[in-house]
C-alpha cells in the first residue's frame, strides 16, 4: 500500500450533557478526523482522541493538527508499506503526540481492512464477537443528580458504572452511591487528582467494594502507584501512566496496578495497544477499553479493539445517544438491554459514514498529498 492523500478534518460536536472530570467540564468536542486514501482510491478513517486543552495529557486539538500536517503526515505519505502495523514505526521519529499519530495509524488499519474485505476487529486478531459495555458518569452538581443518572444507566442495562472523583467529591459521594446501589459493579476514576499525602482518603474507599480505583495519582507516577497499591485492598487500574508496552511491563513488575485501561489514542494506535494487551494477558492482568468522548468513528475503533481476548472487563464504549443527539456514523452505536455491543461483519469499521452530517459539522479541512 502507498498513501497518496491524507485529509485532515476538524469537526465540532455539542454534547447532549456536559461531562466533568477532576480537570474540568466539557460541553462540546472539537475532534480531528483523519481520512487516508491509497493509489487505488480505497480509504480508511481514524480519529484523534485528544481534548481541546492539554489537561488529560500534553496533547490538544490545535497542536495535533500541526503535528499531523507538518510532521506525522509527511512521514507516511508516498511510502510503501505492506501492513498497517508498520505505520507506527514510520512516525516514531515524532516524540510524544501519540494521539495525533494514533489517528493516522488507526485510519491505515481501517484502510487495510477495507482493502482485504475483512472486519477490522478480525484483522487485528479479535476473538470476541461482542463486548461488555460500561458507562462513565462525570462529576455532577449534586449527589442526588448523580444518583438519578446512575439509576437511568442501571435501568439501561450497563454492566458497570464508573464515576469520576476528585478531592472533596470522593468518599462521601461513593458512600451515597453504594448505599443506593449496593450490588452494582462500581469503579471510581480520579484522573490523577491525588497524591500519596491523600493516603487516608484513598484507603477509606476500600470499604465500598469497588471493582477498581483508576489512576488516583500523577499521570507519570508508576512508583508511587506501586506504593499506594501495597496499602489498598482495592485494585488500582492505570490509565494515563501507560503509553507503551514497556511501561505496562514495568508497572506490572513493580506491582503498581492489577488492571490496565488501554486507550487506542493514548498508546499511539493498534500496534502498541496489541503489544500492551499481550503483555497484560501473559501476566494475568485484565484490561478494558477506556473512552475519550469520541465520535462514532473513534467509538467504532474502540469496539474493534475490545474484541481482543483479554478485554474481559466492561469498557467505556457506550451508546452514541449518551453523548450525541446525532452521531456521524450509521447506524449509531447501540447497547443491548443486557449491556453488550456486538461486532459487525462488514469490512472495515463496520459502520457507514454520514457524510452530510460530517460536512455540516466541519470547521476546517486540509489535504496532504
Description:
The chain is α/β, with parallel strands linked by helices. The protein folds into two domains: about 130 residues, Enolase-like, domain 1 (2-Layer Sandwich), CATH 3.30.390; about 220 residues, Enolase-like C-terminal domain (TIM Barrel, Alpha-Beta Barrel). It is built from twelve helices and 15 strands. The strands form four sheets. It has a seven-stranded parallel beta sheet. The chain has a four-stranded antiparallel beta sheet with strand order 3-2-1-15, with helices on both faces. Helix 7 links the parallel strand 7 and strand 8. Helix 5 packs across helix 6 and helix 9 runs parallel beside helix 10. The longest helix is centred in the first third of the chain and has 19 residues.
Primary descriptors:
369 residues; alpha/beta; Enolase-like, domain 1; TIM Barrel; seven-stranded parallel beta sheet; four-stranded antiparallel beta sheet; 12 helices
Order of helices and strands: EEEHHHHEEHEHEHEHEHEHEHEEEHE
Gross CATH architecture of the largest domain: Alpha-Beta Barrel
Class computed from helices, strands and strand pairing: alpha/beta
Q: Average pLDDT value?
A: 97
| Count of individual helical segments | 12
Return the CATH topology of the largest domain. TIM Barrel
- Shape, please? globular
Number of strands: 15
Describe the structure in brief:
Helix content is 33%, strand content 22%.
Layout of strands and helices, then pairs:
Blueprint: E1 3-21, E2 24-38, E3 43-48, H1 61-76, H2 87-90, H3 98-116, H4 120-123, E4 130-132, E5 135-137, H5 143-156, E6 161-164, H6 171-180, E7 186-189, H7 199-204, E8 213-214, H8 222-229, E9 236-238, H9 245-254, E10 259-262, H10 270-283, E11 287-289, H11 296-305, E12 329-330, E13 340-342, E14 352-353, H12 355-361, E15 362-368
Parallel strand pairs: 5-6, 6-7, 7-8, 8-9, 9-10, 10-11
Antiparallel strand pairs: 1-2, 1-15, 2-3, 4-13, 12-14
Helix pairs in contact: 1-3, 5-6, 9-10
Amino acid at each position: 500500500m502507498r498513501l497518496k492523500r491524507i485529509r485532515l478534518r476538524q469537526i465540532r460536536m455539542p454534547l447532549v450533557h456536559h461531562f466533568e472530570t477532576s480537570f474540568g467540564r466539557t460541553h462540546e468536542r472539537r475532534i480531528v478526523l483523519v481520512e487516508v486514501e491509497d493509489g487505488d482510491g480505497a480509504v480508511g478513517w481514524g480519529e484523534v482522541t485528544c481534548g481541546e486543552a492539554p489537561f488529560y495529557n500534553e496533547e490538544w486539538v490545535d497542536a495535533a493538527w500541526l503535528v499531523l500536517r507538518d510532521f506525522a503526515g509527511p512521514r507516511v505519505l508516498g511510502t510503501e508499506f505492506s501492513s498497517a502495523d508498520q505505520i507506527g514505526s514510520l512516525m516514531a521519529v515524532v516524540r510524544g503526540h501519540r494521539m495525533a499519530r494514533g489517528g493516522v495509524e488507526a485510519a491505515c488499519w481501517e484502510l487495510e481492512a477495507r482493502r482485504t474485505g475483512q472486519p477490522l476487529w478480525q484483522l487485528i486478531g479479535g476473538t470476541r464477537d461482542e463486548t461488555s459495555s460500561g458507562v462513565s458518569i462525570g462529576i455532577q452538581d449534586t449527589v442526588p443528580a448523580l444518583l438519578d443518572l446512575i439509576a437511568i444507566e442501571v435501568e439501561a442495562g450497563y454492566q458497570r458504572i464508573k464515576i469520576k472523583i476528585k478531592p472533596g467529591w470522593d468518599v462521601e459521594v461513593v458512600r451515597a452511591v453504594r448505599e443506593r446501589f449496593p450490588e452494582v459493579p462500581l469503579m471510581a476514576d480520579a484522573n490523577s487528582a491525588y497524591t500519596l499525602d491523600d493516603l487516608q482518603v484513598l484507603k477509606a474507599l476500600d470499604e465500598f467494594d469497588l471493582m477498581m480505583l483508576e489512576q488516583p495519582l500523577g499521570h507519570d507516577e508508576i512508583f508511587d502507584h506501586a506504593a499506594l497499591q501495597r496499602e489498598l485492598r482495592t485494585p488500582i487500574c492505570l490509565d494515563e501512566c501507560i503509553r507503551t508496552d514497556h511501561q505496562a511491563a514495568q508497572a506490572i513488575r513493580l506491582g503498581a496496578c492489577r488492571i490496565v485501561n488501554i486507550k487506542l489514542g493514548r498508546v499511539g494506535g493498534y500496534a502498541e495497544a496489541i503489544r500492551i494487551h499481550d503483555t497484560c494477558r501473559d501476566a494475568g492482568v485484565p484490561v478494558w477499553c477506556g473512552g475519550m468522548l469520541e465520535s462514532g468513528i473513534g467509538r467504532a475503533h474502540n469496539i474493534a479493539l475490545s474484541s481482543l481476548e483479554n478485554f474481559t472487563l466492561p469498557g467505556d464504549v457506550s451508546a452514541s445517544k449518551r453523548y450525541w443527539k446525532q452521531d456521524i456514523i450509521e447506524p449509531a452505536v447501540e447497547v443491548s438491554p443486557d449491556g453488550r455491543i456486538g461486532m459487525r461483519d462488514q469490512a472495515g469499521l463496520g459502520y457507514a459514514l454520514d457524510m452530510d452530517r460530517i460536512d455540516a459539522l466541519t470547521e476546517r479541512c486540509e489535504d496532504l498529498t
